[in-house]
Write a structure and sequence with these properties.
The protein folds into two domains: 99 residues, Type I PLP-dependent aspartate aminotransferase-like (Major domain) (Aspartate Aminotransferase, domain 2); 102 residues, Alpha-Beta Complex (Aspartate Aminotransferase, domain 1). The chain has five helices and seven strands; from the N terminus they run H-E-E-E-H-H-E-E-H-E-E-H. Strands 4-5-7-6 form a four-stranded antiparallel beta sheet, with helices on one face. It has a three-stranded mixed beta sheet with strand order 1-2-3. The chain is globular and about 65 Å long. The model has no long low-confidence stretch (mean pLDDT 96).
């Protein structure tokens, strides 16, 4: 929740602690903004970025406030393969694509996808929660008494795979299905994914 993130910023400021964000998965448009921190109006002292930074090429970055990063002397932080020119070129090309509409598409398609997931939740009580930002979304599957339902989650994953939709589970109880569609995903592709989800939930919850 946004208030929790803001609370952590205040707490770190009070006790002189650095606030560090991991934006490896959430960065570079995935949540509908360049970085997830923008949703909360909170600036971390340091944050990490990778994955989407270069569209699959091996590249990562540690980004921080000037007064912190200046404390490192030249050469204090480096690696044998740092600054690979091909990866850096891919990173620049990725930024160009993001600035030319991919982030806006992520925000728009994310809202559309989330709306579709909420519609599925109304249809299937086993979907206990729908959450996420942009195209980084998830549904939590529950059973009787709202207990985590790992078995149903596994069956839904298998059913979706048989129909051509590859998904992953996550969460402490492995009862959460996550969706991380590409930032250039289309409405038609989301509709097809939802059709597969609908058919799979109908089959797997028929006798529930």
């Amino acid at each position: 929740p946004a208030e929790f993130v803001r609370f952590m910023r205040r707490l770190c400021d009070r006790y002189g602690i650095m606030l560090i964000f991991d934006e490896v998965q959430t960065g570079f448009g995935r949540t509908g903004k360049l970085f997830a921190q923008e949703h909360f109006g909170v600036r971390p002292d340091i944050f990490s970025a990778a994955k989407g930074i270069a569209s699959g090429f091996p590249l990562s970055a540690v980004i921080g406030k000037k007064e912190i990063m200046e404390k490192w002397t030249p050469g204090a932080h480096g690696g044998t393969f740092g600054g690979n020119p091909v990866s850096c070129a891919a990173g620049l090309a990725t930024l160009e694509v993001l600035q030319n509409g991919a982030i806006a598409n992520c925000a728009k398609m994310g809202a559309y996808f989330k709306e579709k997931l909420f519609a599925l939740q109304k249809k299937y009580p086993a979907i206990g929660d729908v959450r996420g930002l942009g195209l980084m979304l998830a549904v939590e599957l529950v059973g009787e008494g709202k207990a985590p339902d790992k078995d149903l989650t596994n069956r839904v994953l298998a059913g979706c795979l048989r129909r051509g939709l590859l998904l992953l589970s996550c969460g402490c109880h492995k009862n959460v299905i996550r969706f991380i569609a590409p930032t250039i995903v289309s409405k038609a592709e989301i509709d097809r994914a939802v059709e597969i989800l609908d058919a799979t939930f109908a089959e797997e919850t028929r006798n529930s």
